[in-house]
Amino acid sequence: MTTAPRDALEFPESDRGFLEPHLPPQNGSGPQSDLPFTTLTFATSLDSSLALSPGARTVLSGPQSKAMTHYLRSRHDGIVIGVGTAVADDPGLNCRISGVGGYGKEGLHGQPRPVVIDPTARWEFSDDSKLFQLCREGRGRAPWIITALEKPDAKKVAFLKRYGGKFISVKMTRLHTGGHQIDWQDLLVTLKSHGLRSVMVEGGGQVIKSLLSPHYMSLLNSVIVTIAPTWLGEGGVVVSPARRFDESGNAISAARLKNVKWYPFGEDVVLCGQVKLSD
Ligand SMILES: NC(=O)C1=CN([C@@H]2O[C@H](COP(=O)(O)OP(=O)(O)OC[C@H]3O[C@@H](n4cnc5c(N)ncnc54)[C@H](O)[C@@H]3O)[C@@H](O)[C@H]2O)C=CC1
Ligand SMILES: Nc1nc(O)c(N)c(N[C@@H]2O[C@H](COP(=O)(O)O)[C@@H](O)[C@H]2O)n1
Predict the structure, then answer these.
(1) Most-buried pick from 74, 117, 189, 279 (CB within 10 A)?
(2) What is the ipTM of this complex?
């Protein structure tokens, strides 16, 4: 009998049912589309912060809602984050629920593909990065890195290939601020064409802000937010989409959810819903 690794999490069957209407179909065969089922999910404080500062890994979820996030990871083919999160958190981005691939089952079945949006390929990963440690241990998959560069650094390309990861070059708009803006529709179509039938976008702040813009929010099939009973205070990484205005120039809400359900989860509350599109 194989024993689960020490960091394995438990997420009981009894806690799973409520999530089902908010998740991609179990067998992956949703309506035929060139887009993957896309979930936006993150944990926030009472003052809408994801983290104490852009560079700070910050624990918000309690044990139960953390296990829920890992269950979500087992139900999606890919996890998307921005390079800011990769650099700040050195994340694992695997699923640590007992019974999932590497945590009790043979192979990597149930393990999502990490996808990092890194326009300039600035993430300096190495064998010591948590993601690659987990790959070596058979407990996670190598990342795909989405870049605007046509020819990323050959050493990085070779490194990723050794672990089974890769760069995917996509067109991005160059902003006057010097940054980049990805076309989310293009990205999601690309991910689907590479075999990801469902993706969950975890953050960070800049990624979520751009996805919640009027142009892209209709791409979201589901939104699942963990709210932790804490204020992080000023200077945090805040989730705050750009302002919107009506025809008369009056400010209106940037985005709103519909079909909302709230579920208490330990000391946290988990909010599930769908983006309400304007008529
Ligand atoms: N509480 C939670 O659930 C989560 C918290 N975090 C936290 O968020 C913080 C990082 O957030 P941010 O600094 O906002 O970084 P981020 O993770 O959003 O990455 C920002 C970078 O990603 C790229 N990027 C993002 N959106 C893009 C777009 N639309 N087009 C092209 N490139 C794009 C750009 O290179 C940008 O500089 C960290 O402290 C991390 O711990 C991250 C994920 C989840
Ligand atoms: N659900 C959730 N709760 C929190 O409190 C968090 N800080 C995050 N962060 C996200 O999870 C990633 C870390 O994952 P690993 O535990 O290393 O696998 C982090 O990079 C954020 O994407 N999420």
Answers:
(1) 117
(2) 0.99
